Amino acid sequence: MTPDQPNTEALTVGEVGDQLNGRLRQLHSQLLESFPVVDRIACVLYERQEDLLKTFVSSTREGVAISGYEFRLSDSKSLSNLAEQGTVRVLDDIPAAVHANSLHSVWLLKEGYRSSLTVPLFDHHQFIGFLFYDSRQPGAFTPEVQRNLSLYSKLINMTISSELNVVRSITASAQVAREFANLRDFETGSHLERMAHYARLIAKDLATSHHLSDEFIEHLFLFAPLHDIGKIGIPDSVLLKPGRLDPDERQIMDTHVQKGIDVLDRLIGEFGLEELPDSAMMVNVVASHHECLDGSGYPKGLKRDQIPLEARIISVADIFDALTTHRPYKEPWPLEAAIAELERLVQIGKIDADCVAALKRHPDDVNAIRTR
Predict the structure, then answer these.
(1) Model confidence over 228-286: pLDDT tens digits?
(2) Among 345, 257, 366, which Cα is nearest to 301's?
(3) How far apart are CA 144 and CA 141, in angstroms?
């Protein structure tokens, strides 16, 4: 790879979850023809609920990229001002302006970036993140370069907003249906919140070893709560039964997977998103989270690598939360006992060992999610 050929920050599993990385890489290649000083373009997303900025998509010409990084917006006065005022920031001499007091600043200095342009991103006047242009040349972002880059910034802003709005439209539509289930069973709603965070925790841990992009992880987090969407079609007598299900009831409960697939098929058809890889991830989460590595799962009896990674992650997150929370027929298991049960399921060939190991490596984060 030559220096003028940008490289994405992280690889992905197939095409799933890498749509924006690919588009940004193409745009960066075009931009380099007119502005060869732009060595890196990166976008971070803002999660308002937790006040977090998170690395999302990026394209860089060379060097070691940063991914899986997050920090609180409120911890940076300068970035908070940019988000509030909608203005841009130029650093002409990064080594003189930045101190090595965080993982990001240490990385920035180590990679030799000398100047930067930071642009806040908005969707319908709502702050959604930042766009960073970085150069290994000092003073690269002159007023003229800034003016010329403004068109690219608007194009990237529109692309990211469009992609996020598609995802939000799908999840919002499904959310309406989900709320009916939540009204019938509050614990269902709490379970969905927790297991989505467990899924993201696992995916972040596996990012390096399994080549997962930040975009993959973010979409997995967004789609995780939809895994049991089909339960809106399960009768109350089964869904809300205060005890274990008998074989006939279990058979009815198991139909929630196909019901969920049917719901998503209608949503995807209505939005015309059949070819969108992100939709493929969403369907995989719903369709395969009850498959087992030994082929004993349902509905298709898939084995090992036939089961998409996103579904294997969801399966472990789902089982772990079921074990560690109260149910009408059981008390919550202690963390150690729940991990031991997951390891037993690994040994008999049911669930993914890497996903369990990832969860096991972060007991403090797991407890924070449980008690939040």
Answers:
(1) 888 878 887 887 787 788 899 999 999 999 988 888 887 777 666 665 656 788 889 99
(2) 257
(3) 8
Tokens of 186: 């509050």
231 flagged as catalytic: yes
Q: Which residues of the chain have pLDDT under 50?
A: 1-17, 181, 183, 186
Q: Kindly report the pTM of this predicted structure.
A: 0.69
Confidence at residue 3, expressed as pLDDT on a 0 to 100 scale: 41
Four-residue CA torsion sign, 334, 339, 341, 342: positive
Give the contacts of 83 (CB within 8 A, at least 6 positions apart).
Answer: 46, 73, 120, 127, 130
From CA 62, how far away is CA 357, in angstroms rounded?
Answer: 32
Tokens linked to 262:
């049917």
**Pairing of the two strands 52-60 and 7-8:** antiparallel
Using CA atoms, how far apart are residues 245 and 297, in angstroms rounded to an integer?
17
Q: Which residue intervals of 185-255 are DSSP H helices?
A: 186-206, 214-223, 236-239, 247-254
- Going by C-alpha positions, the residue among 271, 264, 351, 267 that lies closest to residue 314 is 351
Count the Cβ atoms, other than its own, within 10 Å of residue 25: 20
Question: Which tokens sit at 358?
Answer: 């990832």
pLDDT at 125: 87
Point out the catalytic residue in the list 77, 231, 300, 303. Answer: 231
pLDDT of residue 63: 85
- Percent helix, strand and coil across the chain, each rounded to 5? 55, 15, 30
- Predicted pLDDT at 168: 65
